[in-house]
């Protein structure tokens, strides 16, 4: 029996129509770079500050000064917050019910994300997910390095009291999500097709399963949907 399911946020559990990557591209362009689609896809699921730094380094041929990165990152956050204010994120169909089914069966559920704590708290507050819905939330600024390093998964295990990584299922919609799960040694590493990548792109990366959605995870683990009250 799996003890912990670790899920990405944007594109995996939350529908935000790719606005995080639109904001990222716009902020990097405003800082003087000219990223293409492949450049943005390369950094899907990553620490956003790291993504900005590396794309500007590629554009300038040398690492940008800290002040330049700080300005670009602040610009990214402003753009993303404005986008979310105009178009609030929502849970992907069936995901809230899947999380409830997992927790009802005794499986802990944690979220991990390439967002910092400020962005994450605001996003989850918008959709009403708190400690009554989730067992832990780990942000990229909680660990030394983001995906593909496995540290956020390990921190989720620490916070939920799970010791055996073979009893952890990880799921995400990006290559880096799958790489992090594999690097952690998770018992199941699941790619979901609700984000910006299709089965061909995700299938090239080591994984154990590809699913249409996080909503399919309870069935994968042979866990039934929660029954209505009185039944």
Summarize the structure.
The chain is an alpha/beta fold and 231 residues long. It has helices at 19-30, 37-42, 48-60, 66-86, 95-104, 117-127, 151-160, 175-184, 199-203, 217-220; strands at 4-8, 14-15, 90-91, 108-113, 136-139, 168-172, 188-192, 209-211.
Could you please describe the fold and organization of this structure?
It is a single chain. The strands form two sheets. This protein has a six-stranded parallel β-sheet. A two-stranded antiparallel ribbon has the order 2-3. The protein has ten helices and eight strands. Helix 6 links the parallel strand 4 (108-113) and strand 5 (136-139). The chain starts with a strand and ends in an 11-residue tail after the last helix. The longest helix is centred in the N-terminal third of the chain and has 21 residues, at 66-86. The protein has helices spanning 19-30, 37-42, 48-60, 66-86, 95-104, 117-127, 151-160, 175-184, 199-203, 217-220, and strands at 4-8, 14-15, 90-91, 108-113, 136-139, 168-172, 188-192, 209-211. It has 231 residues and is of the alpha/beta class. The relative contact order is 0.18.
Key words describing this protein structure:
231 residues; alpha/beta; 6-stranded parallel β-sheet; two-stranded antiparallel ribbon; 10 helices; 44% helix; globular; disordered C terminus
H/E topology pattern: EEHHHHEHEHEHEHEHEH
Quaternary structure of the protein: single chain
Radius of gyration: 17 Å
Question: What about the largest sheet?
Answer: 6 strands, parallel
Helix content: 40-55%
- Assess the beta-strand content as a share of residues: 5-15%
Strand order across the largest sheet: 5-4-1-6-7-8
Euclidean distance between termini CA atoms: 25 Å
Quick check: average pLDDT?
A: 93
Number of strands: 8
- Stretches where pLDDT is under 50 for at least 5 consecutive residues are 226-231
Query: Which structural class fits the helix and strand makeup?
Result: alpha/beta
Shape: globular
Number of helices, where a helix is a run of at least 4 consecutive DSSP H or I residues: 10
């Amino acid at each position: 029996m799996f003890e912990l399911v670790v899920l990405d946020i944007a594109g995996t559990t939350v529908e935000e129509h790719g606005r995080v990557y639109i904001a990222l591209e716009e902020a990097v362009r405003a800082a003087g770079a000219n990223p293409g689609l492949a450049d943005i896809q390369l950094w899907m699921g990553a620490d956003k500050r790291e993504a900005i730094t590396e794309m500007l380094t590629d554009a300038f041929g040398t690492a940008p000064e800290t002040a330049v990165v700080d300005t670009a990152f602040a610009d990214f956050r402003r753009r993303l917050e404005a986008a979310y204010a105009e178009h609030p994120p929502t849970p992907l169909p069936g995901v809230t019910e899947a999380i409830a089914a997992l927790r009802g069966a005794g499986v802990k559920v944690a979220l991990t994300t390439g967002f910092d704590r400020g962005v994450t708290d605001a996003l989850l507050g918008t959709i009403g997910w708190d400690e009554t819905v989730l067992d832990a939330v780990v942000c990229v600024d909680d660990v030394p390095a983001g995906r593909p390093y496995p540290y956020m998964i390990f921190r989720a295990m620490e916070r939920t009291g799970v010791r055996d990584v073979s009893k952890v299922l990880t799921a995400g919609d990006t290559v880096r999500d799958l790489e992090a799960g594999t690097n952690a040694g998770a018992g199941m590493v699941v790619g979901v097709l609700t984000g910006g990548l299709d089965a061909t792109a995700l299938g090239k990366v080591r994984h154990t399963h590809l699913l249409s959605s996080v909503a399919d995870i309870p069935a994968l683990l042979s866990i039934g949907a929660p029954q209505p009250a009185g039944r």
